Amino acid sequence: MPNIAIVWDFDGTLTPYDSTTIAAEVLGAGDGKKFWDEVHALKGDGDGDPEIEWQHILASDAPVWMYALSRVAFANKIPLNEQFFGKFVKPRIELYPNVPDFLRALKAVENEELFRSLDLHIHHFIVSAGLKDLVGQILPADLIKPPEQRWPPQAV
Q1: Which of 63, 81, 101, 136 has the most CB atoms less than 10 A away?
Q2: pLDDT for 131-151, tens place per residue?
Q3: Residue 90, CA atoms < 13 Å, CB-side half-sphere
């Protein structure tokens, strides 16, 4: 079965918000700048162009900032789980207007005659840097495959 995979970054693409910064602020890590300064320190960044350093963290160091977020949560004895994200982070994040309709419209293209004749399917994958518990609560349920039908977790 042929497939078309479309990969979406969650923060800044499907939503205008930075979910990691919001989670850090909710956990009491201060403002976003303080949290990201700590991430830079953990990584050993600090010299040079701040924009290049920022891009470096975004591109390759998600484990470092997820570790920093986990440290803040652990220090505050708050589990980074579905309940935390649903109660404290989800209310501060929303999708860009029409994102669910747009994703559904793209998925519906596979029902067109040419796609059906080729048995061609469209799949959306969401990159969330470890925040799948949050993404799963923000995207409408019809865009998420049930857990028993997916591995790794993915959007439809």
Answers
A1: 136
A2: 778 888 898 888 876 555 544
A3: 17
**Residues 6+ positions from 103 with CB-CB distance below 8 Å:** 124, 143, 155, 156
Supply the Cα-derived Rg of the chain in whole angstroms.
18
pLDDT digits (tens, 9 = 90+) for 24-38: 899 887 788 888 888
Long-range contact pairs involving 21-28 (C-beta distance under 8 Å, separation at least 24): 22/89, 22/92, 22/93, 23/69, 23/80, 23/85, 23/88, 23/89, 23/131, 23/134, 24/68, 24/69, 24/72, 26/88, 26/89, 26/92, 27/69, 27/72, 27/73, 27/76, 27/78, 28/72, 28/76
**What pLDDT, on a 0 to 100 scale, did the predictor assign at position 68?**
83
pLDDT < 50 regions, the chain: 59, 150-151, 153
Contact 26, 88 (CB under 8 A): yes
